[in-house]
Amino acid sequence: MGSRRxxxxxxxxxxxxxxxxxxxxxxxxxxNGYSIVNFFSYxxxxxxxxxxxxxxxxxxxxxxxxxxxxxxxxxxxxxxxLVLVGVVFHLLLRDTDLGDLKPWxxxxxxxxxxxxxxxxxxxxxxxxxxxxxxxxxxxLVPAVYxxxxxxxxxxxxxxxxxxxxxxxxxxxxxxxxxxxxxLAGFLxxxxxxxxxxxxxxxxxxxxR
Length: 208
Known about the structure:
By secondary structure, the protein is mainly α. It is built from seven helices and no strands. Helix 1 packs antiparallel against helix 3, helix 1 packs antiparallel against helix 5 and helix 4 crosses helix 7. The chain is globular and about 50 Å long. The mean pLDDT is 90.
C-alpha cells in the first residue's frame, strides 16, 4: 500500500514538473516570436508531453485499484523515447548552443524525465511484458519523426537538430549515417526495455 501511494505521488510530481518545463519553454518561444510549429517539431518536447500523459494516467489508474496500471505498451514506449532523448542529448548535443532554452528546463526534459520513467519501469514493473512485436511498433514513431524532420527541413530550412541538417552533417550521407545510428539506438533501447520488464517481473514473482 505504501509503495503504491509513493509511486502515485512521484508520478504526478514528475509529470507536473515536465509539463511545467515544456509550458515554460513554450512561453519563451511565443514571447520571442518564434514558430510554435518548430517548437513542437522537437522530439524532446513531444516525448516529454507523451511521457507526462503516461505518468498521469498511470497514477490515476494505480490510485483507483492497486492491481491496475497503465498498459505496459504505453509505458514502454515512454521509456524508450525519453531515455533515448537523454542519451542522444548527452552524446551529441551537450555542447551545442541551446539558445533560449532555460537551464532548469534543460535539466528536466533531458535528465529528470528520462531517469524518472526508467526508474518507474524498474521499481514498479508492468503486470505483463509487452509482446515482441511491440519492439517494432515502438520504432514506428521515431521513424515517422525522422522522415517528417527531413522532409520539412528540406522545404522550410528548419531542422530541429543539427544532425538532420545536411549542411552541418557532411551532406545527406552524414545525415543518413546519423539517422541510421539513432534508429539502431531506438531498436536496442526497445529490446532492452522489454527485456528489463521480463527480468523485473521474474524477480518480483520470485520474491512473493
